[in-house]
Amino acid sequence: xxxKFHMPTKAYFGxxxxxxxxxxxxGFGDKAIIVTGGKSARxxxxxxxxxxxxxxxxxxxxxxDKVENNPSTNTVKEGGNAARQAGARFVIGIGGxxxxxxxxxxxxxxxxxxxxxxxxxxxxxxxxxxxxxxxxTAGTGSEVTPYSILxxxxxxxxxxxxxxxxxxxxxxxxxxxTESQPAEVTVNTAIDAxxxxxxxxxxxxxxxxxxxxxLEGIRLFGSCMESLHSRKFSSQDRADLLYASMLxxxxxxxxxxxxxxxxxxxxxxxxxVPHGKANGYLMAEYLRFNYGHxxxxxxxxxxxxxxxxxxxxDTFILSLTGKPPRLSDEEIAEYAAITMKQRSTASNIRxxxxxxxxxxxxxxxx
Amino acid sequence: xxxKFHMPTKAYFGxxxxxxxxxxxxGFGDKAIIVTGGKSARxxxxxxxxxxxxxxxxxxxxxxDKVENNPSTNTVKEGGNAARQAGARFVIGIGGxxxxxxxxxxxxxxxxxxxxxxxxxxxxxxxxxxxxxxxxTAGTGSEVTPYSILxxxxxxxxxxxxxxxxxxxxxxxxxxxTESQPAEVTVNTAIDAxxxxxxxxxxxxxxxxxxxxxLEGIRLFGSCMESLHSRKFSSQDRADLLYASMLxxxxxxxxxxxxxxxxxxxxxxxxxVPHGKANGYLMAEYLRFNYGHxxxxxxxxxxxxxxxxxxxxDTFILSLTGKPPRLSDEEIAEYAAITMKQRSTASNIRxxxxxxxxxxxxxxxx
Lengths: 366, 366
Known about the structure:
The structure is a homodimer.
Chain A: E1 3-13, H1 17-20, E2 31-36, H2 40-43, H3 46-56, E3 60-64, H4 73-86, E4 90-95, H5 97-109, E5 131-135, E6 148-152, E7 157-161, E8 170-173, H6 183-202, H7 208-223, H8 225-230, H9 235-255, H10 259-271, H11 275-290, H12 295-304, H13 310-321, H14 329-340, H15 354-364
Parallel strand pairs in A: 1-8, 2-3, 2-4, 4-5, 5-8
Antiparallel strand pairs in A: 6-7
Helix pairs in contact in A: 4-5, 6-7, 6-9, 6-11, 7-9, 10-11, 10-14, 11-13, 11-15, 14-15
């Protein structure tokens, strides 16, 4: 048994957690920049809560609300400039994965005069500003990971960076903030959280601690399957899904992801498919591909969800995602080649060749 | 669902983890003080490994090896002075719970000119020195908790202090370091780890994350029951027990302990009984006392250990600890009164009166 455990983010979970623990922000300095996508931060009530505790704690702030879905390196560059001009001492990300990931990049760029592409070198002369992360979706887990996933047009995909210094210092997880999301977003992001837990659980970098966290995350997803199917969510579902998402983040902080994420990015980059849904297309085939190499674990995770086998899992996830867009042979070859270049592909429990990925893409659209 | 998760210690687990990750120490400064009890640190090989990586990383060091079992406030005062005189920039604790807890107090006193009794006020003008913790027993979990438990002769018991700043920055858990301990110590410390996991699991401050960590720790103890009984330990047992101990530490960092610890301290303070064994005397009665208030959880933790009921648990633990020393009625009344003053008594799932504690002490010696 050899492993490392490191999860330095202080996480507050529960309704009202921002207001109740707002004094946590007082230690970070007298000027904040809030990084958001502009919509969910406002609709969820999170932005109001944050502004209120900042004011209460006499912290000045500016708002950078230009983060798009799947943020580009240009956007985070602009955010970094805004943070520097404002003299921000810390960064508060509010939103889904995109604003949270952008906030991490802004925290680095605010104090390091580098081009955004240098982010991926993961070496920063100056320690990033402290990051506070407040999710409004239950899927990314980014509030408890060091990872920032940005879209790189130069290599036509999404790529992550992250160091121990880009773990958020504090995360506030209030399940009510996820209520304003459309049901479609709740479903897609839940699939994302599930894929973090499953890929982490089965991946090569799985650790004893990450395994028990992942199984709990998978169990919680299982307990919400009926609600996900009916697209009606109780407060309990909201809390369970947000907690499952946090567990998924804690898991991938230790394990990274594998080929579901790597291959899924292509559906997002080239076809505009939301990230979680893109992962959903691939998950059953991913389990079939790995079954011979992780039979016991796959049986266990299916049992934990109350499922009898991969086929039942497949039917359920398909009922959530619908059929994937049809890919040409050329597209399949290109997507497989791009996925092979992702670092995370090497973490898959079964060694992966480009031909394997092509098969997975092909089987998915049968 | 309302909870906080905070576990900032970076933990490396596995054989050879000090040597493999010694460069972690380089960031803390050029002068260390090693705090130990003098025996287990040397016998285990841990001190050699630490000196070797310190030398490799050009870090000067002094050794303070005067920590006794259940360290007194006087000892940590002396350690604090030694650290200050040496100009130590960080503190490395090596040993069982006593040296690790003393190391935390030394880290505070080295940079705060206060009397040891002021430690318990938990407010320090200057941030404690960074702490590195290396356990040589599998029980305390102190390597991943902020707690330092010291013996206070003024109120005749052991009391803890700790703030988020007394979490070790880094912990190295090498199961081989526990091999040089007498079997008796392995058994007693394993019971301590079990009591952390069980008290945390059942206590009022239990959280969703601490529950799953605790159940895993309890399961691991269960998997070592035969070895504990025969007092023969494989490498796998050593690793499992050290991991269970680490999980117990992560658990009580969130939940604190309850009446097993509070009541057990009296056997240690007044009768010289080792800490884990003292807890062992009380655990079955503790489960009986709480059964009506936590039936489902107690059934579950027994099942996880492969046991059918509290009686079977009782018989097993008794086979490890032997009978407790007989207490007079006066002693029972005094011990109960002291336990009532422990803060942790309020965290017990069932409200506790002095008469309840007296009953528990009485039932234990039937």
